[in-house]
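FIELD: query
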Amino acid sequence: MKKRIVVVGNGMAGLRFVEELTAAAPGRFDITVIGAEPQVAYNRVLLSPLLAGEIGTDDVMLKPAQWYADRGVTLVTGRPATALDTAARMLTIEGGETIVFDACVLATGSKPIRLPLPGADLNGVVTFRTLADVDAMTAYAQSGQPAVVIGGGLLGIEAAYGLARAGIEVTLVHVMDRLMERQLDAEGAEHLNAAIAAKGIRVLLNAETTEIIGSDRVEGIGLSDGTRIGCGLVVMAVGVRADAALASAASLEVKRGILIDDTLETSAPGIYAIGECAEHRGACYGLVEPAYEQAKVLARRLAGHEATYGGSVPAANLKVSGVPVFSAGDFIGEGAEILVTRDAGLGAYRKLCVKGAQLVGAVLVGDTTDALWYLDLIRSGADVAGFREALAFGRAYAEAA
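FIELD: result
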């Protein structure tokens, strides 16, 4: 009898796990995937160009429904899981249907944070996380009214870029002193700020939103310094938090995310978690690559191979509003030797952090040609002493040295 596996979540992490498992052990498992959204899995990274009209909906879809059927995988969409019984090994989904399993993989992802501001429930206040959010933003954008995006992290910048490309006047409001403070140092963020402003997006830093103004629908926002900004759309893009509600209700151990060990197992035997919903050694990774690494390890383990997950080196290799951006490891570099190159003509900035004979962190803005090479050096802990003088000039120079 085939081992029954249910995957809760049909996002990028859940799909990658199914890909890895069906490739590693074809036909050996009875797999059911439960998706809360009505669509098949899609690439959330591409929501900004979709909003901007640069690509179509079909371009963001990862696998068609037939792909699941061809591999004997049962796909359920538009019916979220409502209860998990870890003792009976049974999952209940919307509508009351129950699914019995031998192993359960939680890949429930994250939910966008909504600030508890006065006026937050007005029409015209949206988040930027799903295809439904993109549809709502596109509909509001047709009015031609200005928009305000709250949040200067990756999602906020991407939302602002998409709206600006759609022809909307956009103001990006961020409470911190620089954009993408979790991925960039101060100078790297300045380069990004300049590039975004050049695209017609107004950026306000150190700006705290205190209220959303309007009667039935959005008319503007108010800032802590008394500034009022008129708009017809407010996009809250202030971050996400792990969607651990199902796990918490099932009495699994949860802190910031669902606690997992090096085998990806939760506090209940046979229940696993991967991706943004999981917390491993105190870290909740909000990036795709760690989720893919976790999916691969878990698939190998369930297929009968030896594999453990020791954590991921935080890295982001992105094109933010059309600007290439990369950061990895300890990019602040406290106590490290800092190597910096700047090219004003190309709008490029490169910062490397070296401790001893190892590269420990990097930030690249404007030119990310050597990003993967630097990431390999950071992850492997390679000795860079032999080409230290050429390190900041990229792989070609370093290898020649």
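FIELD: remark
Residues 125-236 form a domain with the FAD/NAD(P)-binding domain fold (CATH 3.50.50.60).
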